[in-house]
Structures are given as structure tokens and as C-alpha cells.
Amino acid sequence: MTDRILEFLRNRREDGPCLVLDLDVVRENYVSFASAMPDTRVYYAVKANPDPRVLELLAKLGSCFDTASVVEVEAALASGATADRISFGNTIKKERDIKRAYELGVRLFAVDCEAEVEKIARAAPGSKVFCRLLCDGKGAEWPLSRKFGCDVDLAPRVLEHAHRLGLVAYGLSFHVGSQQRNPAMWDGALKAASAIFNDLGERGIALQMVNLGGGFPTRYLKEVPAVRAYAQSIMQSLRKHFGNHIPETIIEPGRGMVGNAGVIEAEVVLISRKSDDDVVKWVYLDIGKFNGLAETMDEMIRYPIRTSFDGDETEPCVLAGPSCDSVDVLYEKDPYHLPVSLEIGAKVLIEGTGAYTTTYSSVGFNGFPPLKSYVI
């Protein structure tokens, strides 16, 4: 929460929920990553928040960009980034999208199987590819599934196949899970990456790069280590597993870059109980899972919530969204303690919402408009 955001909200007269994002915080976050890891290139994960003003700022600061689609590639280019600063990091791509990215100048692509390698060889000949490894995401608040990546035993074959098809077998990537609060979780993946580097080196294929992925957290209800703690832990692991032959490294912060830069202002629509003896009160907001808070699924991401009644006596409350869908309940298994004095019509501030909110907001489910966004 910044004074700039609070001042903006004080002067706002529009109705409906909105996200307000402070670019000064994004700038500070970028500088933190760049200074803590000076030998590592920063590839901002565009999907976290693709607002043009965020991308333009990061492009001016020197950031590279991790993109998941042609639309994101074009957005990164429009921000002022050159194609050599863009990675097509999605392992699931249509061949025509690979071709379009190649035509736009992109030469760095992610893969996790031989079929994807073959598409890139046809549509983007001579490009660099890096193979994504499976990670279990242990310890992450938003763990990633087996949807992306391949087993460490398969990765060498995927990269050898790329080499034989005329592509540059450039390196490896992994993702230790989003909102990863344990800096030591990069160690196991780097150990596996080192073994693959050695394996392929013995076959005459010299890998050059390790993509350390994202996972760098933002602060929600729990404290998180500083960026420098992650940098020190990762560098220690690189030295341990790669010795004096440390490869090129890149990182893909998304949540860690913009999460704490944004605050959502929402309104209490209804407060009720389900029975006379119900000890838990239901608080319905004008924003829910379908309006930008999709990461409350399974209550994995627990956002800090502030009200003008903070300091008063509290009671347990179930938080839910406004839509006519029974899954639109934000927190029920572990209710939030909110002020007893909270009223219908009161504004609430949901902090740490700069990442993965506007992009998750539906176009018009139940007729509710997409989440408004203001960048200041």
C-alpha cells in the first residue's frame, strides 16, 4: 500500500471494483532483482500483468520479457523491447504461432518434448531452444502441476533431437512453484541441470543457459525473504553444482515484480448469516473468483484485506464474490476475521493484487464487467 494509491482512491468517484498499481513500486522491484543478481538477465513474465505502461517502464529499465503467446510477443515489442529480448516461454504453441514469432524476430523458444522441437525446427529454423524440467513445486503456495516440463531422463533426448534438427540446444529451465517462500528450493533443480549439462557435454552438445524460472514471491499475509536471500542461495547452488563453469542464467519474475505494486478496492454488497445460530458471518464483495481473484482457488493465495473499521472487535467471516455461481467463494475453509462493525457499502482494500488479477478477470460473466485497472 502506498500513499500514491491511497490518494488516488480518495479522489476516485467511479463505481465498481478496481485495481490501482503504482509504477514506482514496480521500478523498485526491478532494481532489486537487477542489483541482487547482476549477472542474471531479467525476463519479466508478461502474463502476470501485461498493462502497456508496466511493459514500457520495464523495457526502459532494460528488462527482457517472457511471453506465452503471440499477443504477448507483440505487446513486448510495442513496449520498446527488441526481439532479442523476448523469449517464447510457453511449451505449448501452435506451429503458426511459432512461425509468427519467428517472423517478428524471436529466436528463443521453450520446449519439453520432441514434438514441440519438430514444430520449431520447421517454423523457426536455427533458433535456440531450452528444455523445461519437471519440478514438484514443493513448498510453493501456488504449486505448478505436471502440465509443463519433462522428466530429467527425457530432457537430454529432447535437446539432442533439437541439435540434430539444426536448432541450437541452448539450455534448460524449471519452475519451483509460484509464491515459493523457500530460497533453498532451487538447489535440487540446479543439481539435476548440472547432470544434464555434463551428459550432453560428453555427447558434444554444449549447453549454455539455465533459466531459473519464476517463483519469487510477494508479501501477502506471511513474511517472505528478500530478493537478496534468493540470489545468495541460488548463487551458492550454482557454485556447488557447476563449479567454475557457471552457465548463463535468466530469471522470470512475475508476481515478485508487480504483486506488491497493486491494491484492489472493492465494496461490501451483503452481510448475512445462514441461520440464527450460525457463528460465521457471510460477507459478499463486488469482486470474486471470476472478477480477478482466481488465485483464491482452494484458498491458496490469501490476500491481506484492510477496512476502515480495522482495530474494532473481529469475528470469523466467509468471504464470497457476487456471481450466481456456487464456486465463487473466496475463503470458507479458513474464514477471515473481519471487524464486527463492517457494514454493507463499506470499501475494503485487497493488497498484493498487482499480479494475476486483471488477466484472470472474465470478459463479462453474469454481466459483470472486467476488472478496471489504473496505473499511476
UniProtKB/TrEMBL annotation:
<dbReference type="InterPro" id="IPR009006">
    <property type="entry name" value="Ala_racemase/Decarboxylase_C"/>
</dbReference>
<feature type="active site" description="Proton donor">
    <location>
        <position position="324"/>
    </location>
</feature>
<dbReference type="InterPro" id="IPR022644">
    <property type="entry name" value="De-COase2_N"/>
</dbReference>
<feature type="domain" description="Orn/DAP/Arg decarboxylase 2 N-terminal">
    <location>
        <begin position="25"/>
        <end position="258"/>
    </location>
</feature>
<feature type="modified residue" description="N6-(pyridoxal phosphate)lysine">
    <location>
        <position position="47"/>
    </location>
</feature>
<protein>
    <recommendedName>
        <fullName>ornithine decarboxylase</fullName>
        <ecNumber>4.1.1.17</ecNumber>
    </recommendedName>
</protein>
<dbReference type="GO" id="GO:0033387">
    <property type="term" value="P:putrescine biosynthetic process from arginine, via ornithine"/>
</dbReference>
<dbReference type="InterPro" id="IPR029066">
    <property type="entry name" value="PLP-binding_barrel"/>
</dbReference>
<keyword id="KW-0456">Lyase</keyword>
<dbReference type="GO" id="GO:0005737">
    <property type="term" value="C:cytoplasm"/>
</dbReference>
<dbReference type="InterPro" id="IPR022653">
    <property type="entry name" value="De-COase2_pyr-phos_BS"/>
</dbReference>
<dbReference type="InterPro" id="IPR000183">
    <property type="entry name" value="Orn/DAP/Arg_de-COase"/>
</dbReference>
<comment type="similarity">
    <text>Belongs to the Orn/Lys/Arg decarboxylase class-II family.</text>
</comment>
<dbReference type="InterPro" id="IPR002433">
    <property type="entry name" value="Orn_de-COase"/>
</dbReference>
<dbReference type="GO" id="GO:0004586">
    <property type="term" value="F:ornithine decarboxylase activity"/>
</dbReference>
<comment type="pathway">
    <text>Amine and polyamine biosynthesis; putrescine biosynthesis via L-ornithine pathway; putrescine from L-ornithine: step 1/1.</text>
</comment>
<keyword id="KW-0663">Pyridoxal phosphate</keyword>
<dbReference type="Pfam" id="PF02784">
    <property type="entry name" value="Orn_Arg_deC_N"/>
</dbReference>
